[in-house]
User: What shape does this take?
Amino acid sequence: MDYLAEGFLRAVRLILSLDRELTGIILLSLKVSGLALVLATLLGLPMAVAIGFKRIPMRGFIVSLFNAFMGLPPVAVGLFVYLFLSRRGPLGFMGLLYTPSAMVIAQTILAFPIIVSLCHAALISVDPVIRQAARTLGATDPQAAIAVVKEARFGIMSGVMAALGRVMAEVGAILIVGGNIAGYTRVMTTTIAMETDKGDFELALALGLILIGISLLINLALHLVQQKGVRKLV
Assistant: This one.
């Protein structure tokens, strides 16, 4: 027990001292996950709208496929991204392997189906009368779709935050494509894994506490958004 208490105390001191290595790892984690989330949202929300409102062949199969891809194994995603970005891969000429850009690509792939599936579910749950009313008032198809998106904003925000929680906790994919290089591609999850394996728990515990705090904030924000959505329906 004394060992655990001392470890936590040292971790807290490390956080309060704003250690340079610690803050660098945290900022890189937020940067990579934030950029991946933005890209996945920019790609995923239009896809969700298209699936929800366009007459697409095999739409039911496509929806089921995205739902299945929500559980993509991160290690498998990392492997495929690695193969594409490696020197002998089709995108090897870009020199992205073992860079933060490769990590963003891997996390975007993981977040994309989550955003598509959850945003699609939010959009189709909106009362069809809203879209019909917009069309009756002279709105074009894009304008009617925007009206539905506004109505489903709480559900869409929930989907985006769920995707953020997924990428913030990711280890396998970014470890494969990022290489866990100190000061360059080392993020919170990969550092925790490495430091724990080394038996150096001070930095691992500090980052673990930060990561748990971020996860709690994400879940609190998700809960508040969902409560606003419920109150709006009542």
Notes: Residues 20-53 form the longest helix (34 residues). The chain has a mean pLDDT of 87.
